[in-house]
């Protein structure tokens, strides 16, 4: 299906790389003007660099190449004033804001009994408070326009529990609750709020060597391919391996388009059938 977002303005948080970059390019291809934010800080508990020099410029280049007008903003989703500044810049540039994708996220693995308070707090601050800040900053403009679509990026582990990941999982369950609460508040203003729940997606967040020892603690020779084989067999039900970010962008695009105008407070799972293992 193709979507026509001509005349719309979209904002993606964490658009410097990975899935956020893919969403930004998809919006540009669909005709939207695209703003994205990212930040250049780091956390001592993530096994991967949060952002690399050049990431932001590369997304900007790719969005422009996809035919879109692009506004790249450095802003940290943990800060409400920074998110309000970002929305202010977007509205100043294009006069409106129709779509906001709260995508920025971090992940690091520690069992609950050993998790440092700061690791817990950082993860909640980015993954959950960051989504709140995005909704809080974007919604007044959308209310004024009497319409808009906000998509929060949760996860398939926003619907189940797995080992070694309590802060991330709590944050992603929280995103679903927040999206439903915000959909109730914003529905009367024709502003929709939904979540997308990806499964294993091939980005730096998971393709960084962390997973083999977690999945196979007794096998020091375990590889990323072993993890993917396990995911094919025991997690996803369609053996497609780790999915490309574009698969998630397809769902984000649908929820951002008028084709979903009466869908709000919902979640869409993009997880090669992992949903088959959920209760509902
Ligand atoms: N990769 C997966 O398998 C997977 C699965 C389910 C959900 N997700 C979620 O998808 C979203 C995108 O992740 P990804 O896979 O593209 O990972 P990624 O690490 O490649 O991208 C995350 C982006 O968010 C940015 N970011 C982090 N903290 C930020 C902050 N405080 N302010 C602004 N930007 C910040 C990073 O710089 C990076 O550009 C995340 O919310 C993640 O939790 C990922």
From TrEMBL:
Gene3D superfamilies for this protein: NAD(P)-binding Rossmann-like Domain (3.40.50.720)
Keywords assigned by UniProt, alphabetized: NAD, Oxidoreductase
InterPro entries the record matches: NAD(P)-bd_dom_sf (IPR036291), SDR_fam (IPR002347), SDR_subfam_1 (IPR023985)
Record-stated family: Belongs to the short-chain dehydrogenases/reductases (SDR) family.
Protein name: Short-chain dehydrogenase/reductase
Naturally occurring in which organism (per UniProt): Amycolatopsis deserti
